Amino acid sequence: MADSRWKIVSAVGLVWLLLDQLTKAAVAAYIPLNHGFSVIPGVFDLVHVLNRGAAFGFLNRSDIDWQIWLFLAAAVAVTAVIIGMVRTAKFSRLFFFGCGSILGGAIGNVIDRVRARAVTDFLDVYVGQWHWPAFNVADIAICLGVVAAAVVLLREAREEARQKGE
After folding, report:
1. What is the span of the domain harbouring residue 67?
2. How much of the chain exceeds pLDDT 90, in percent?
């Protein structure tokens, strides 16, 4: 059983990592930097932008260079926490899917940071003047992974509380 937890985490992480890197390579090859085109007018564009910061453009500044070290350290810390959680968690495919998704997405963005000192973002969702910050497949993986892991952890906490209340 312990062996299969790592197979799930590894397989899911690898799939997300490959999807992320392949889509970023395609964007870099076919869309000039800081350009894009509409896929669904008024709602969704494909763009090619570089983000030196974190999610939603936090610390996305070209006049500072230290943020790469902060984000690399955060990725290492998150990886260590997830490995510890997977090692000790009750068997749950959904939880291990979530952990693998987080790891695959984090590694995908770390590869960009090491290679280009910035993350390639290309999915641009908007309505009228409201724009969600551009994001990528790694960001989707991380968000889905957090939701999946949180669902499992919240269910377990609720079950534990219910059992203590009986």
Report:
1. 2-165
2. 71
pLDDT reading at 55 higher than 70: no
| Least confident span in 51-60, 120-129, 155-164 | 51-60
Instruction: Sort strands 44-51 and 36-40 into parallel, antiparallel or unpaired.
Output: antiparallel
Whether the full predicted model's pTM is greater than 0.85, yes or no, is yes
Active site residues: 121, 139
**What is the DSSP code string of 34-102?**
T-EEEEETTTEEEEEEEESSSGGGTT--TT--THHHHHHHHHHHHHHHHHHHHHHSPP-HHHHHHHHHH
Q: In total, how many domains does the chain have?
A: 1
- The b/e string for 117-135 (b: 16+ C-beta within 10 A; e otherwise) is ebbbbbbbeeeeeeeebbb
Amino acid at 123: L
Residue 28, both tokens: 């870099």
Nearest to 153 by CA among 106, 83, 101, 86: 86
Q: What gap in Å lies between CA 39 and CA 23, rounded to an integer?
A: 16
